[in-house]
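Continuing the batch. This is chain 6 of the set; chains 1 through 5 are on the previous pages. Same settings as before, nothing changed between runs. Recording input and output for traceability.
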Amino acid sequence: METRRLGRTEHRSAVAIFGAAALARATADEARAALEDALASGVNHLDVAPRYGEAERLLGPILPPVRDRLFVGCKTTRRNPDGERAQLEESLATLGCDHFDLYQLHGVTDLEELDARAGAARAILRAREEGLCRFAGITGHDLGAPVAHAEALRRHDLDTVMFPVNPRMWADPTYRRDAEALLQLAQERDVGVMAIKAAAARPWPPPATPGGVGRWATTWYEPYGKEDRGGVARGVRFALSVPGVHGFCTPGDLDLMRACMAAAQGFVPLDAEEREAASAHVAHEQMIFPMPTG
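Output for chain 6:
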């Protein structure tokens, strides 16, 4: 699998990053198989968080033996610096790590939330100084993420950003403008860029509810892959072809995770004209954001 330099971290990350959200409701056997499949495909970067259901607990027994093969990124949603530090230490213990390669403010999608996380951001930077993490970053879903992340880079000495990049998002002029401005700023500051939601199609249609009737995947949005078999590959190719993107996180579904890894292994870049065509192809789809709260 292709690798790319993740900005000033200097890590050569495989373009597909193992998104451990897929393990949220997995069994121990499924988690072990997923990790083995990821490593076999060439993946060398893991993305995990306390909010990903059972993921940390399931990875705890199986991560240490392969720790030296993975760049491990973890996250926190806490605002209070003491709470952030406690969660960092708890995640380290659960995952059997003495440090993380990357620790991130998780789910920052607007300036109000960025303001509320100021103390936690400083706590992460202190943890970086202490060696509990090597690098610091920020992540976020929703339409406001690019603006919030650009401001975060101006306020804090962060090493990475993670935000949505897919053909449908690029069909929205405002989002595309804000995202491309963030990508430019990240390039200027040599910040690593990770994409999410590459395979997202649309919100789940009613009457689907979390875990309920009508859902064929464990993602909170309906992904491509059931009716549109080429949608997953199209989304992966698009995300990895956007200038400035270094890699993408695989979705929160075990089957889709494997489909995305396969697409990444066969990645062929889209040129500018092909990216515009991919975006136009799905411009009619409903935005997946805002995220459902129920």
